[in-house]
Records
---
Amino acid sequence: MKHVRAAVVVLACLLAAFFLGRTADAQQDKRAKQLTWEYRDAANLNLSQLNTFGAEGWELVVVTPYGKDYYYVFKRPK
């Protein structure tokens, strides 16, 4: 009888974990589908310009040398 009770408890826990996991995955998928990005690029920015971009919500994601200059790529949620 103890084995049957233990098996029922284990089964109930597994079912709960399965359904809770599926709910979390569905919510995460929904958020991922809703989030879209817009991008902006620029070259040769000074610190003041970088601060202005940051104040506008742009996040710097790439800086790469371009000859003697630098090339910047920014993103922000749409």
---
Amino acid sequence: MKFWDFLRGGKVALTYGSLWSYSPWGHSEAERRSRDYRYMLKNEQTVEYGGKTMFMSEVVPKAILESKSTLPFMTLFENDPVLVPVTRSSLLQPNSLWVGLKVATAMQRAGLGSTVSQSLAREYAVGTKASAEEHYDSQRVEQKLLTEPKHILLVDDFVTRGATMIASALRLWETYPKADIAGFAPIRTISWPPDFKKIDDPVFDRITLYPSGKCHRNP
């Protein structure tokens, strides 16, 4: 199947949830702190949380469970989904850090998923601004599950346009066409500073891939 085959019937949408937001350009104290959140997660640093020293990947499921009664995206976890970490844009080297896998593993240990499957693999590196088509072409489903999953949750460290995440979903839909696939990222990027509200700003919405091949993440 080809990338453009998915768009013959029009746009494609992927439901996603996100816990925190970050501003790459804003100058307020909250926006500066949001960049610290992203840095600590991207580099899997330890932080003090709830009186304990924890890796940032471990903070994610703890923060979710502590606020589960008010979070808008808790339906993502209702059916014990298979957690599939989204691949990095660069090729994975031995002993290199894969934050999506770290977060997915921590979520599974906390009961926010049935299992973790490293189903996706990157065949060659792409740029950080790669299109959804480029992300799609550079990936493959490497590890097939023994039984076809009903629910798959893609897990990434952060989401900007959503091109990587929705391209990953297309690859999985090829292999598991009946699966309900959604996405989750602890942090989403708010590129335009006036749109930034606060760090703790959970959302449950969608990423849309249009017939032009362009992606749009809302909000």
---
Amino acid sequence: MKQINIGAGRTYVPGFVNIDIAEHAEITLNLNEDKLPFEDSSVDLIFSYHTLEHVENYLFALSEIYRVLKHGGVLLLGVPYVTLTKYNLVNPYHKQHFNEHAFRFFGNLKGSAIEENQIAFEQVYCKLFYMGTFKLLPPPLRNWCKNHLFNVVKKIEYGLVAIKTNDIEVNHSARELKKKYKEIARARKPYKPSASAKKSTPFEKVFKITKLWWNGEI
């Protein structure tokens, strides 16, 4: 099973081929212009965490991801949410923006503009990470805030499946892909472990997890 981690800047995933523009990655390339060094339809799974928002030539990069994935191959993707201001909209290194409809233009909205590409993904799930008190609101009010206010959702996670033929049915569940995303995200390891890292007390662990939850990180 061939698995790729795209955007292994500070971390790598054991058992994956780790790719980044940084020289310490297993494969160093520029997603804006370099083709992925894999044959067509040869990859089972691609994981990418907070990377595609940095890619200026987005359609080229996405076409390469699609090219190397098998029919039914999985793309697990995490990116900032479009209306996050502090760390997204004003970030000069972010070239692309995403919300829950971003991949519909490669699915059921394909052809809504005069575009020509072969990219086709089925969105099995997308997960929104709400921030602070917005987590506690009832869904209709929370949804209204998301659509009309800034800084309601911090990031978004997708489970996508490459569709290359209509003759072979694809069967992936949202539950399955969410579990896989979480497993891979937790498996990431730093290239340079911090020398000052110390073991946390149970209270510190609970406080850290609560803070991450409240800030929309988990």
---
Amino acid sequence: MAEPTGAAMGHGVNAMGHGVNQRAQIRMTPEEVDEFLRGRHSMTMSTLNADGSIHSVAMWYGFLEGAVAIESKAKAQKIVNLRRDPRMTCLVEAGETYDELRGVSLVGRGEIVEEPDRIWELGVSVFERYNAPYTEEMRPFVETMLRKRVVVKLHVDRVVTWDHRKLGLPKM
């Protein structure tokens, strides 16, 4: 039986980079984060239930005053959770195979917004990101979308990113 090599023992680099700290190599720059978040993605939004379990939902998102924000029914579980405890984490990710995986995790506090002008600003942002450019003819659609809704604006405390495309791995 052959002796194990350094790579097989977790020393050095093997095909997937196991055993090597590549955190700094795959981190996104602030400009890359902005570009990625401006792309058309869904976001997983997580809040804390009263029993401490995690409540995660897929959301479309937009931008309010430069910050990531979502709209939701005022009585939704995520809003109930945020009124009790404003901590939340939002994950936006992309990639079908390991060599393509990239994402941004935003950890912070949700501000529940109930002012009509600010709700409208976010509503138009979400509408434009996922439907079509906003025109006055679209007003009834956005108004319907925002009926009985509030907005959650994320105040970010910490950002975690990864972009496996930076590893230079062969296409999988």
